[in-house]
Design goal:
Helices cover 34% and strands 26% of the residues. The chain has 467 residues and is of the alpha+beta class. It has a 7-stranded mixed beta sheet. It has a 5-stranded mixed beta sheet with strand order 20-19-21-22-23, with helices on both faces. Helix 2 crosses helix 11 and helix 3 packs across helix 10. The radius of gyration is 26 Å and the shape is globular. Bound molecules: glycyl-adenosine-5'-phosphate. The site of glycyl-adenosine-5'-phosphate (GAP) has 18 residues, from strand 10, strand 13, strand 16 and helix 11. Glycyl-adenosine-5'-phosphate binds next to strand 10, strand 13, strand 16 and helix 11.
């Protein structure tokens, strides 16, 4: 990846910190790798993304149900799911400086097609063939151990008062297991007809060997998942429809189509029959996985039926037919999506002869919808009028900001950097200096810098129509 793209990622990371979007976890203690905190602007953007996702995947559908399952699960869940055995990344260690590398990623860097879904033998063979070309990112030597599979599940000691960890309770390696565990509950209590879907946003944790690229690969993440239950062998059309819907959703939240592409997996994870990723053109990484769309067949429910001993077959109430539904899954990491949304909206452009940084976020996603300012901070009449406008707007639209610091140009720049679509200025004309302009305000548009005069009475309706 070229230097320009690396710099672009650095600029985005810096903006995220400077403008209160994202902070490194535990920063005052030197940070904790692979974990991030969302600041006041970040949590608003994240919540707006979640709302848009929930709207599309629950409210806009007739046969999808929402869920919020507990993070901790019975230890057997991860055995049944296959994660205690098959959920690993290929790791090798530098014998000189003990740095650990993800072998599949290092192979890809030197142009060899590899991924974490390959078997241990396959990846070991590739590594042995190419070890002479792979250097340690820390010390530059080429003295690595053999590859071993490193399990990504993270153990907790929940309920274990003996410290023996005989049957550890794991943190969730993927959020979707809560959906399979509640399949029977939802069928029994709501009697949905197949096909139907269950949607959930939940946390997942992975002991990633090399967390990297900011929010792209983290150890703690949030996943937004849908699982669509279909009759056996009736997966093909539904799968195509779901793929199309997910693609269109990204366009609907303002992601540019040129930055998206499809990638079909050659090597499938243990549960999948077919798997496609929607890839995003991430800064410094290029195209890489944003969302997985997986055809999981009856793997999950069959496994849980076997391990729990509960009958998880669906009974068709009209025909009496019993079967294990097949599952079509969509799963997107919200941190990755957050990064894609910011990267897609990040521009450095020239406005009125000045270079500025601007986030051209879709107004529905912007953390602040409008910022209200008095033209001058030291004129009590202006400030009082502006405070009244601010408070009135805030009652109708909660995400309204107040800014009376610095000159008006500086305020605009600050709001541009966080993607605020509108800035509203209260000036002497608002107070009636020119009687025909009394109770009108200046409304400035983020993307063009253009300004227009709008009556105060129309402000709420105008902003609501745009967000
Ligand atoms: N339930 C299926 C599942 O978990 P996955 O491909 O491992 O499948 C789904 O993960 C999505 O979760 C990915 O497409 C990605 O957006 C996100 N994701 C996975 N690992 C991640 C990590 N370490 N950091 C951030 N996001 C991650």
């Amino acid at each position: 990846m070229n230097e320009k793209e690396n710099t672009r990622l650095e600029k985005i990371v810096s903006l995220c910190k400077r403008r209160s979007f994202v902070f490194q976890s535990s920063e005052i203690y030197g940070g904790l790798a692979g974990v991030y905190d969302f600041g006041p602007r970040g949590v608003e953007l994240l919540n707006n993304i979640k709302r848009a996702w929930w709207q599309a995947n629950v409210y806009d559908k007739e046969n999808y149900y929402g869920l919020d399952s507990g993070m901790f699960k019975h230890p057997k869940v991860w055995e049944a799911s296959g994660h205690t055995k098959g959920f690993s990344d290929p790791l090798a260690e530098c014998r000189e400086c003990n740095t650990r590398i993800r072998v599949d990623k290092e192979l890809v860097k030197i142009g060899i097609a590899a991924d974490e879904k390959m078997s241990e033998e396959e990846i070991n063979k590739l590594f042995e063939e190419n070890r002479g070309k792979i250097t340690c990112p820390k010390c530059g030597k080429k003295n690595f151990t053999a590859v071993r599979a490193f399990n990504l599940l993270i153990k907790s000691n929940l309920g274990d008062f003996t410290s023996q960890q005989n049957e550890p309770v794991y943190l969730p390696g993927e959020a979707c297991q809560g959906i399979y565990l509640n399949f029977k509950n939802i069928v029994d209590t709501l009697q949905p007809k197949v096909p139907f879907g269950i949607a959930q946003i939940g946390k997942a944790f992975r002991n990633e060997i090399s967390p990297r690229n900011f929010l792209f690969r983290t150890r703690e993440m949030e996943q937004a998942d849908t699982q669509y239950f279909v009759r056996p062998n009736e997966n093909k059309n539904a799968y195509e429809q779901i793929k199309q819907d997910r693609w269109n959703w990204y366009l609907s939240i303002g992601i540019q189509e040129k930055n998206l592409k499809w990638h079909q997996h050659d090597n499938l994870v243990f549960y999948a029959k077919d798997a496609w990723d929607i890839e995003y053109n991430f800064p410094s990484l290029g195209f890489d996985e944003l969302e997985g769309v997986h055809d999981r067949t009856d793997y999950d429910l069959t496994q849980h039926m076997q391990f729990s001993g509960e009958d998880l077959r669906y009974v068709d109430q009209e025909t009496g037919e019993k079967y294990i539904p097949w599952i079509l899954e969509t799963s997107v990491g919200l941190g990755r999506l957050f990064l894609a949304v910011i990267a897609d909206a990040y521009y450095e452009d020239d406005l009125g002869g000045e270079t500025r940084v601007v986030l051209k976020l879709a107004p529905s996603l912007a953390p602040v919808k409008a910022c209200v300012s008095p033209l001058l901070k030291n004129k009590p009449d202006l400030v009082a009028k502006a405070r009244g406008v601010y408070q009135g707007l805030k009652k109708e639209i909660p995400q309204i900001a107040w800014d009376d610091n610095g000159n008006i140009g500086k305020r605009y720049r600050r709001q541009d950097e966080i993607g605020t679509p509108f800035c509203i200025t209260i000036d002497f004309d608002t107070l009636g200096e020119k009687p025909e302009l009394k109770d009108t305000v200046t409304l400035r548009h983020r993307d063009t810098g253009e300004q227009e005069r709008l009556p105060l009475s129309e402000l709420v309706a105008y902003i609501k129509s745009k967000i």
